[in-house]
Each structure stands twice: as structure tokens, then as C-alpha cells.
Automatic annotation (TrEMBL):
Residues 283-452 form the Acyl-CoA dehydrogenase/oxidase C-terminal domain. GO terms for molecular function: flavin adenine dinucleotide binding; oxidoreductase activity, acting on the CH-CH group of donors. The lineage of its organism: Bacteria, Pseudomonadati, Pseudomonadota, Gammaproteobacteria, SAR86 cluster. PANTHER family: ACYL-COA DEHYDROGENASE, BROAD-SPECIFICITY LINEAR ACYL-COA DEHYDROGENASE FADE5. Residues 469-593 form the Acetyl-CoA dehydrogenase-like C-terminal domain. Its cofactor is FAD. This is 3-methylmercaptopropionyl-CoA dehydrogenase. It catalyses: 3-(methylsulfanyl)propanoyl-CoA + oxidized [electron-transfer flavoprotein] + H(+) = 3-(methylsulfanyl)acryloyl-CoA + reduced [electron-transfer flavoprotein]. Belongs to the acyl-CoA dehydrogenase family. Residues 80-157 form the Acyl-CoA dehydrogenase/oxidase N-terminal domain. Pfam families: Acyl-CoA_dh_1, Acyl-CoA_dh_C, Acyl-CoA_dh_M, Acyl-CoA_dh_N. Its EC number is 1.3.99.41.
Length: 598
């Protein structure tokens, strides 16, 4: 059975040396008590949970899957006990509102914990992040009464949350949903309709499940402007926030049989006049849901990165053990008939591609999480606003680019193991299956790319990009005296020029032909992702050089970082050229064929 090891050295390096988390938290009164020592204690404890509680039931959970019998869903053996231990450890309320029993911890911290949970057991992690996201939405948009009734138990982990958006005919285009909310005399609503693909829609892990449901009132405006958000509990709750024991009219109709994340229950949910409570304002449901979606999308990127790391751990240790063929150069072991496959340049290509993207992906996720924290906690309004702009720009890229690179890393890891990567024993084939969904749900990656190119770039005339460039300028200015950094900084400048050229090109082209936006979008998201990974590597390299100069401890670790960063610049970044060319080639060759010619 594959064993997962929490990447604590990398995590500490990123938090302390690259992002200086303690200094950032000290600027914000609500996080000022989150010191390096506290961070270390929490991350180490979370690492133990991932290694000791979640990883051991990952493979068995995949093999057993969830069960559906007479409308009741049960999770695989060991999940309930693990969830209870997780909840009793206080993890469910880590980032929650302190006024309702949450611990008010920053997202930077919980992002790392999520990455470890996804790496160790993606199915389990999904139950936890859906609850966190639902509680967050409730805390932002719920009335005081709803918050007081529901949040404490969601933070305690005895109740869990879901998000019910998708319907059979409405996935990406939620404006088409048909679920109805009919007002009752007592200010509640009767919710009726069918939602599909609902993660954690039913299960046996918690006493109650709190669904956040998108629905339309009978007289609502057509399309996305007529959508409202409702809270619908599985078991009705009394005025003291305790279970009445009376089941609401919401039932799980079936669970999906799917490619991966088999221990995560993906449910068809039937609402048949279920009692619901309005969250926030009428017809503002979609924008309220976006509170949750920025966080959930970040989590999906972390799923990709976590599974990539789990795959890298297996593949890199395998490559040091497995002997096949002779080393082409001086690495040959004398007296042996074959060498470990790690001597082969092509095996190194795969491992270094994985490692370089995992570190950059983790850094990008932390960067996005830090902006979520600043936008939530910072006392300075201008800083909060700037962080909101960065969140808007970064999240679709982090979601799509980290999940694409994450899936690619799982496949590369599988390739490093050859035939042994294809069989179940080593865990790589499960990682490939579990990582694939992250490219699809929470908005398919093509739709993230479209969001980035259309709403976040063309529509605002590239203004958000300028905010990102200010951050890059500040960093570059700080490195002018560091000679080792100069060749790397040049690469960032070149990549940035390509991005500016591509942006101008699409903005100009879109004025005459709206298809230019969709035609450029995927390559543009990838060019942006590559540029951001380059920016993250600059920051990692700068911190590694600085740390290497101030201490001889961990010299080998910093040296490894510098070598991996150099590989990224030489072997992965050049793709930016072909992406820029692809973007500027325009829409014509994509749109030339008629539908019948496909
Ligand atoms: C395992 C699993 C768990 C899920 N969990 C949840 C959950 O908890 N809650 C929930 O509400 N939903 C959930 N979903 C649903 C998921 O979010 C949707 O499947 C996803 O958003 C895509 O919607 P769709 O499947 O209807 O595809 P469609 O919307 O039909 O899209 C199909 C393809 O067309 C592309 N496309 C669509 N529109 C456009 C456009 N305008 N421009 C360019 N390309 C476009 C998409 O990128 C995609 O490649 C889950 C799905 C799965 C499989």
C-alpha cells in the first residue's frame, strides 16, 4: 500500500522564507496571533492526520466505494471513524467565524492542510471542503438567526454542507435551472426540483446535512438574474438549533458510478417541496454562491497539486530502487548489471517536470490564498481592494492550470513506474483517476479559461493584469543587487512581454470578432499559468539563495531547489513562445469547419 508523507520541509520553506506568513499575519489584527510557532504546530498536526488517518483508508475506500441502499448512502469502512476523529480534532471549524464557534484561521494555513488531505485521500477531503465552503457562504449571506442555528454544528463537524447547483440540463449554464422555490406564509420556501452530481449529498458521516440550493421563484426574471440561494436541511432543526428528528422532503435518488473519487458520494438529490430558508437577497443567488466558489476552486487546484505530490513521492522513490538498463554516463554502478532508472535523462525529465510544477503550484495556491486572507482581514481598504482584484484574476488560473499540471504529473508518475504504474498496487492508477475530475468540476477548465480571458481580461481592458504586474515589479526591484537572480529575472521579463503582446492582440481582435475571446482562451490561461509559475519560481529561487547565504543548514535542500528552478526556466518555460504564437494565430482556423464537417 502506498504511504504518503506530508511535505513539511517544503511547506515551512514556502510559509517562512517565500511568503513570510508571520509578517503578513501580524499586519492584520484578526490574524496577529498566528505566529510561525503556531503555524508549525498546526501544519505538523495536520500532516499526522493526513499520513496516519486519511492515507491508510485511501486505497480501501477506492476499492469499496460508497453504497446506496433504499435511499440511504453509506461510506466505505473506516470513513465514519476517521471523520469523527477529524471533527473531534477541531479541523472542521479551522477557518470559521469566531463568533459562531469557528477558529478564524487564515486560508493560507487551511490551503496547505487541504492539499495534504487531497494528497492522502481525495474522496475524504471532499466531504470536508464542501462543509467549509457551505459554512463560509452561510456566514457571509445568512441572517443572524440562520447563522446562530446552523454554523456552530457545521464548525463542530457534526453537521456537514453541500452545494446544489447542477441539474440534468444545466451544468455550466446555470441560468437554465428549473428548481422552483415557492414562498410560504411563514417566510420559508418550498423547494422542488432535481439536482445531480451533488458531492456529499447524502452519507453517514454526520447527523445532519445542510444543502445550499440554487432555485428560482415562480415570478423570477429569466436567466442567471432570477436565481436565489436557499438553505435546506436534511433533518429539520428547532429554534434552539437542535435536530427535531423530522426529515425534510429531500432524498437521495441514486449515486453515480464513476471513474475516480469512488469513496466520495456523488448524489442525485430530489427536492419535493422541501422546506428552505432564503440566504441573502432574492435573485442574487449566483453572486452569493461565488463567495463559496472562489474558495472551492482554490481547493480543486489543491486537489490537483496534492495528487501530483503523492504521485511524485511514489515515482521518485521507485526510480531510485528500480534497476533497468545501464547509465549512459558516469553514473554507472560498478559490479552491477543494471542501474537505477533515475540515471536515465528521460526519467529525470518526468520527475523534474513533476517536482517543478508541484512546487510552483503550491506557491501559486498559497499566493492566491494570501490574497483571500488580505481581502478578508486587512485593515487597509486599498489593500483589501487590490487583493480582491488579484483573487479575481488568480483563481481561474490556479484552478485550471494546477489541475491540468496535477493530472499530467499523475500520468508522468504512472509512466515512471512503467507497467507497475498501470496496476492498482502502487496507487498511481488511482491518483490518475482521482485527479481527472478536478479538471471538470467547479467549472470545467475551458470555462475557467473563458472567465479569465473574457470577464477578467478583455472586459476590463487588461486592468487586473496591471495589478499583477505591480506585484512583479516590486519583486524584481527587490532583486536588482542579487547577481545570481539576474538571468532568471530576464526570463520573467521575456515571458511577461509575451503575455502583454498576447493580451493586446486579443483585446484588439475581440472588438471586431467576439469569437477571438473563446479561441484564444485556453492557450491564454496556459500562458498566464506558465508566467505565474515563473513568477513563483523567481520567488522560490530568491528565497533559496538568501537562505543558503545566511546558513549552512539544509544546504542540500536549497541546492536542490535551485537546480529544480533552473530546470523549470530551461525546459518548461520555453513553451510560452508557442503558446503566444497559438494565441495570436486567431480564431479563423478554429471556426472554419461547419458543424457537419466534424
Ligand atoms: C464527481 C462530480 C462531482 C460534482 N460535484 C458537484 C457538486 O457538489 N455540486 C454541483 O452543483 N455540481 C457538481 N458537479 C457538477 C460539475 O460542476 C459539472 O459537471 C461541471 O460544472 C460541468 O457541467 P456539465 O457536466 O453540465 O458540462 P456542460 O456544461 O454540458 O459542458 C460540457 C463541455 O462544454 C464546455 N462548455 C460549456 N459551456 C461552454 C461555453 N460557454 N464556452 C466554452 N465551453 C463551454 C465545457 O467546458 C465542457 O467541456 C459534479 C460533477 C461531478 C462529475
Amino acid at each position: 500500500m502506498p504511504t504518503y508523507r506530508a511535505p513539511l520541509t517544503d511547506i515551512q520553506f514556502l510559509l517562512r522564507n517565500v511568503f513570510r506568513a508571520e509578517e503578513l499575519f501580524a499586519e492584520m489584527p484578526d490574524t496577529a496571533e498566528v505566529t510561525d510557532d503556531l503555524i508549525t504546530a498546526i501544519v505538523e498536526e495536520a500532516g499526522k492526520i493526513a499520513e496516519g488517518l486519511l492515507s491508510p483508508i485511501n486505497q480501501s475506500g477506492d476499492q469499496e466505494g460508497c453504497h446506496y441502499t433504499d435511499g440511504v448512502v453509506t461510506t466505505p469502512k473506516g470513513f465514519k471513524e476517521a471523520y469523527t476523529a477529524y471533527a473531534e480534532g477541531g479541523w472542521a471549524g479551522l477557518t470559521g467565524d469566531v463568533n459562531y464557534g469557528g477558529q478564524g484561521m487564515p486560508k493560507m494555513l487551511s490551503a496547505l492542510i487541504e492539499e495534504m488531505s487531497f494528497a492522502a485521500n481525495s474522496s475524504f477531503a471532499l466531504y470536508t471542503i464542501l462543509n467549509t465552503g457551505a459554512a463560509l457562504t452561510l456566514s457571509h449571506h445568512g441572517s443572524e438567526q440562520l447563522k446562530a442555528l446552523y454554523l456552530p454544528k457545521m464548525y463542530k463537524g457534526t453537521w456537514s454542507g453541500t452545494m446544489c447547483l447542477t441539474e440534468p440540463h444545466a451544468g455550466t449554464d446555470l441560468g437554465m435551472i428549473k428548481t422552483r422555490a415557492v414562498p410560504n406564509a411563514d417566510d420559508t420556501y418550498s423547494i422542488s426540483g432535481t439536482k445531480i452530481f451533488i458531492t456529499a449529498g447524502d452519507h453517514d458521516l454526520t447527523e445532519n446535512i445542510i444543502h445550499l440550493v440554487l432555485a428560482k421563484l415562480p415570478d423570477a426574471p429569466a436567466g442567471p438574474r432570477g436565481i436565489s440561494l436557499f438553505l435546506v436541511p436534511k433533518i429539520l432543526v428547532d429554534e434552539a438549533g437542535e435536530l427535531t428528528g423530522e426529515a425534510n422532503n429531500v432524498r437521495c435518488g441514486s449515486i453515480e458510478h464513476k471513474m475516480g473519487i469512488k469513496a466520495s458520494a456523488t448524489c442525485v438529490m430530489n427536492f419535493d417541496g422541501a422546506k428552505g430558508f432564503l440566504l441573502g437577497e432574492l435573485n442574487q443567488g449566483l453572486s452569493h454562491m461565488f463567495t463559496m466558489m472562489n474558495y472551492e476552486r482554490l481547493s480543486m487546484g489543491l486537489q490537483g497539486n496534492g495528487l501530483a505530490d503523492s504521485s511524485y513521492q511514489i515515482a521518485s522513490s521507485y526510480a531510485k530502487e528500480r534497476v533497468q538498463g545501464r547509465a549512459p554516463s558516469s553514473e554507472r554502478q560498478s559490479g552491477q548489471i543494471a542501474d537505477p532508472i533515475i540515471v536515465h535523462p528521460d526519467v529525470r525529465r518526468m520527475l523534474l517536470t513533476m517536482r517543478a510544477n508541484i512546487l510552483a503550484g503550491r506557491a501559486l495556491s498559497l499566493y492566491a490564498a494570501s490574497q483571500l486572507d488580505i481581502s478578508r482581514f486587512h485593515p487597509n481598504e486599498a489593500k483589501r481592494k487590490q487583493a480582491e482584484q488579484l483573487v479575481a484574476l488568480l483563481i481561474p488560473v490556479q484552478k485550471a492550470y494546477c489541475t491540468d499540471r496535477g493530472f499530467e504529473a499523475c500520468v508522468l508518475g504512472q509512466q515512471v513506474l512503467g507497467g507497475h504504474g498501470y496496476v492498482a498496487e502502487w496507487g498511481l492508477e488511482q491518483n490518475v483517476r482521482d485527479a481527472r475530475i478536478a479538471q471538470i468540476y467547479e467549472g470545467a477548465n475551458g470555462v475557467q479559461a473563458l472567465d479569465l480571458m473574457g470577464r477578467k481580461t478583455v472586459r476590463v481592458n487588461g486592468d487586473l493584469l496591471k495589478v499583477l504586474f505591480l506585484e512583479m515589479d516590486e519583486f524584481v526591484a527587490s532583486q536588482q543587487q542579487i547577481s545570481a537572480m539576474q538571468p532568471f529575472l530576464q526570463k520573467l521579463t521575456q515571458c511577461r512581454e509575451l503575455l502583454i503582446g498576447a493580451t493586446d492582440n486579443v483585446i484588439a481582435g475581440a472588438a471586431d470578432n467576439p469569437d477571438e475571446i473563446g479561441a484564444a482562451s485556453y492557450a491564454y490561461m496556459e500562458l498566464m499559468g506558465l508566467t505565474l509559475y515563473c513568477f513563483m519560481w523567481q520567488r522560490i529561487l530568491a528565497a533559496a539563495y538568501a537562505a543558503g547565504e545566511s546558513t549552512t543548514d539544509s544546504a542540500d535542500y536549497y541546492d536542490g531547489l535551485i537546480k529544480t528552478g533552473t530546470f523549470f526556466m530551461n525546459r518548461l518555460l520555453p513553451r510560452s513562445q508557442s503558446l503566444a504564437e497559438e494565441i495570436t494565430s486567431g480564431a479563423s482556423s478554429l471556426m472554419a469547419m461547419s458543424a457537419e464537417q466534424f
